[in-house]
C-alpha cells in the first residue's frame, strides 16, 4: 500500500489548511509546527511520542498540538488515515477572542483525548470543507462551534459569552437584509457585523432567539420565498432557484423536496 497525503487551503477561511493522508510506512520524525494542529485518525492507529510519553491515537480520539511542541508520529497498525486542521496562530487568536473575553491565544497544551462525538463532528466538517458542498455560512458556524467544544473540553479558554438573545432591532435588521439579498451569498460575517456582534456571540444569540442555526433558518427562508414565486406562476423553476440563492438547480430540487415532499415543479 502506497502512502499518500493531500493538503487543501480554504479561500473563505484564511489561515486554515486541511490535510488528509493514509500512511503505512511513512514516519513523522521528531518535529514541531509553527501553527496549531488538530488531528483525528479515522481508521487504524497512530502512535506518537510527546514529552517522554507514548500516546495512541485511534478512531474517536482527538490530538491537539500547539506551536513549538516537539512530537513525532508513526503507524501502530497495518495503516492509518489521518485528517488534520492546520490553524495559523492569527486565525486561532481571532477565534479565541470571539469565543471568550481573552485577546490572547488559547492556553492549548499538547493533548490526546477521547471524545467520539466531537471527533465525528470534526470528520464531517473536514469532509464538508473539502467538498464545499455546504454554504459558507454553515461551514463558518460549525467551525466556530467545534472550536468552542474543543476549548470547553480542554479548558483552554474561559467563556465570556453573553447568553442574551438578539434584540428586536437586530432581528428585524437581519431579516430585512436577508430578504433584500436572497439571491446573493450571505455569510456569517455579514450577519454578525449587521448585528454589531462577533461571529460566535451572534451564533449563540441567534440560536437562543430562533431555535435554529442561521444556515437552517436562511435555507428555510429561501424555500419559503421560492414557494411564493412558484405560486405566481410567471417564472421558470430555474429562474426561481437563482432568484432565491440556489445556483445549482439539482440542489434546489433536493432541498425543496426534502422540505415540502414534492419537487418544485409539483408545487
From TrEMBL:
The keyword Transcription regulation applies. It holds the Pfam family HTH_18. Residues 172-267 form the HTH araC/xylS-type domain. SUPFAM superfamilies: Homeodomain-like, Regulatory protein AraC. InterPro entries: AraC-bd, AraC_XylS_family_regulators, Homeodomain-like_sf, HTH-like, HTH_AraC, RmlC-like_jellyroll, Tscrpt_reg_AraC-type_HTH. One of its GO terms (molecular function) is DNA-binding transcription factor activity. PROSITE patterns: HTH_ARAC_FAMILY_2. Keywords: Activator, DNA-binding, Transcription, Transcription regulation. Gene3D superfamilies: Homeodomain-like, Jelly Rolls. The keyword Transcription regulation applies. This is AraC-type DNA-binding domain-containing protein.
Amino acid at each position: 500500500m502506497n502512502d499518500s497525503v493531500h493538503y487543501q487551503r480554504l479561500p473563505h477561511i484564511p489561515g486554515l489548511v486541511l490535510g488528509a493522508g493514509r500512511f503505512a510506512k511513512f514516519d513523522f520524525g521528531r518535529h514541531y509546527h509553527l501553527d496549531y494542529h488538530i488531528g483525528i485518525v479515522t481508521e487504524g492507529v497512530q502512535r506518537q511520542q510527546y514529552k517522554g510519553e507514548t500516546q495512541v491515537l485511534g478512531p474517536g480520539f482527538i490530538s491537539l498540538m500547539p506551536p513549538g511542541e516537539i512530537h513525532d508520529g508513526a503507524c501502530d497498525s497495518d495503516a492509518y488515515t489521518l485528517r488534520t486542521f492546520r490553524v495559523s496562530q492569527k486565525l486561532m487568536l481571532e477565534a479565541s477572542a470571539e469565543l471568550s473575553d481573552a485577546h490572547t491565544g488559547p492556553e492549548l497544551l499538547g493533548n490526546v483525548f477521547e471524545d467520539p462525538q466531537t471527533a465525528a463532528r470534526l470528520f464531517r466538517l473536514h469532509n464538508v470543507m473539502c467538498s464545499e458542498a455546504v454554504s459558507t455560512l454553515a461551514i463558518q458556524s460549525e467551525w466556530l462551534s467545534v472550536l468552542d467544544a474543543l476549548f470547553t473540553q480542554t479548558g483552554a479558554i474561559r467563556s465570556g459569552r453573553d447568553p442574551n438573545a438578539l434584540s428586536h432591532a437586530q432581528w428585524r435588521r437581519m431579516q430585512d437584509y436577508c430578504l433584500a439579498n436572497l439571491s446573493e451569498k450571505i455569510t456569517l460575517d455579514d450577519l454578525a457585523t449587521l448585528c454589531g456582534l462577533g461571529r460566535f456571540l451572534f451564533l449563540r444569540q441567534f440560536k437562543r432567539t430562533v431555535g435554529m442555526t442561521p444556515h437552517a433558518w436562511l435555507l428555510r427562508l429561501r424555500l419559503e420565498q421560492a414557494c411564493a414565486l412558484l405560486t405566481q406562476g410567471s417564472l421558470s423553476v430555474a429562474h426561481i432557484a437563482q432568484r432565491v440563492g440556489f445556483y445549482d438547480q439539482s440542489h434546489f430540487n433536493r432541498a425543496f423536496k426534502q422540505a415540502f415532499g414534492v419537487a418544485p415543479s409539483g408545487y
